[in-house]
Amino acid sequence: MYTLYYSQGACSVATQVVLRELGQDVKIIDAQKTDGFKAVNAVGAVPVLIDGDKTLTEGAAIMLHILNKHDNPLFPKNDRQQATQDIMFANATMHPAYGRLFFLTQNISDEKVKQETLNAAAESINQLWQVVEKRLASASFLGGDSPSAADIMLAVYSRWGAYFSVDIVIGDKTTKMLNAVQAMPNFIKTDEAEQVASAK
Ligand SMILES: N[C@@H](CCC(=O)N[C@@H](CS)C(=O)NCC(=O)O)C(=O)O
Fold first, then answer.
1. Closest ligand 1 atom, CA of 58?
2. What are the pLDDT digits (tens) for 31-78?
């Protein structure tokens, strides 16, 4: 049994979806409702995964830990280097690109400057989605014929664009991939589990 600290709709959704895909039991705790969460993770960010006596932080490190621990098709064995690169692309390149939208919204008070910088941030996100679209020219998912952990991570981040008044442009093949991942039963179960836990 794992314990996962999450925030509703945040990047920790991907951790939970992957744990469920791996057939693992997971207890989830809302970090927003956890007094002194910084004692759990000094950075104050989710995901945090408790595995036995270990407290793991940093989404990509957690992902690699669970994917290496449990046999699964989410981390293609035939090209581990590419699969790792895809996880890092999602976590360290796409996630921070979306993170800029949250930061600018919270920290710029001049509405004109805010919109201009949000548009510039959206443009850099769009360039990253073009990179994904090119990768999907020859396969339905970054992992090949079935979703990899990186596809799941991208499907979580892609939903954040709807919170902002910007044009996020996602290509057809990528849209198909994201829709397929978001329709996975464990993706739906994860959203439901977060809703139930956060409503308590
Ligand atoms: N580098 C960290 C960043 C995680 C992160 O930014 N998490 C967001 C949610 S998607 C968060 O918890 N933000 C709240 C905060 O940083 O205070 C990781 O990959 O785990």
1. 20
2. 999 999 999 999 999 999 999 999 999 999 999 999 999 989 999 877
